Amino acid sequence: MGQITLEGMEFFAFHGYYDEEQKIGNKYGIDLTIHTDLQRTAASDKLEETVNYEVLYALVLEEMKSPARLLEHLGHRIIDKVYNAFPFVQLVKVDVYKYNPPLGGICKWAKVTLEEAR
């Protein structure tokens, strides 16, 4: 078993429960961790036998372009996309950060973490 992580991905997107949030947009962050067998790839050195980081990033980018009301929903969509693209992945964990959430005070970010194993 091995782990591949993309940390600190940042996007400007139009998610949010309130209509105003979906109009003005905000900065969001994503950390994505997947668990899979990396032994064969470690021996073969072949990209097609592992999870391609560029594909992972593209999957996240695609979902960030489609507005969601809740961070939980967004995270779930990302997990589904990863499993569809890489059926051999055994676990996906995603952290979704919303920078400066509209709470009426100072808060660096709101964060939701989802984890699904097969």
Describe this structure in words.
The chain has 118 residues and is an alpha+beta fold. The chain contains 4 helices and 4 strands. It has a 4-stranded antiparallel sheet with strand order 1-2-3-4. It has one domain (2-117): GTP Cyclohydrolase I, domain 2. 19% of the residues are buried. It is elongated and about 50 Å long. The two termini are 14 Å apart.
SSE layout:
Blueprint: E1 2-13, H1 19-24, E2 26-36, H2 39-44, H3 53-64, H4 71-85, E3 91-99, E4 109-117
Antiparallel strand pairs: 1-2, 2-3, 3-4
Helix pairs in contact: 3-4
Structural class: alpha+beta
Unreliable residue stretches: none
| H/E topology pattern | EHEHHHEE
User: What portion of residues belong to β-strands?
Assistant: 25-35%
Compact summary:
This protein has 4 helices and 4 strands; from the N terminus they run βαβαααββ. The protein has 118 residues and is of the alpha+beta class.
What keywords describe this structure?
alpha+beta, four-stranded antiparallel sheet, GTP Cyclohydrolase I, domain 2, 4 helices, 33% helix, 118 residues, elongated
